[in-house]
Input
Amino acid sequence: MKKFEFELEKVLEFRNFEKQKAEGELAKALAVETEINQNLETIAMQYAALNKSMKGSLDFTDIMSQSRYTNLLNYQKEELLKQLAQAKIVSEEKRGVLRECMKKTIALEKLKEKQLADWKQAVDYEEAELLDETVKHQ
Output
């Protein structure tokens, strides 16, 4: 009997390629989220450092500088939060694409496994028939 050949092997390979591509795109989107979160943490540390350094200061110039710097940090934080919201939307879209790719790939892999099992069963049956024929002729 000829060796097993899955008729949709090229389609399965293409689906696996699409899945890998989707995984890569999701990884990039998550990296953007991580970078934004790190920037937010940096701003939080800058807030803390500013508050610590200005604790108890009564110098008007220092207080005005702190106020302007705090406004700048607030602006940066708000911009980063907007970027983070957008990045989360992109990540969810990429997750959805990956889920769809995985569904398609899994369906083909299950079909391949079923066809392979059927092929193995047919080979076993054919071998058993041949063995029976050989035993009968002896």
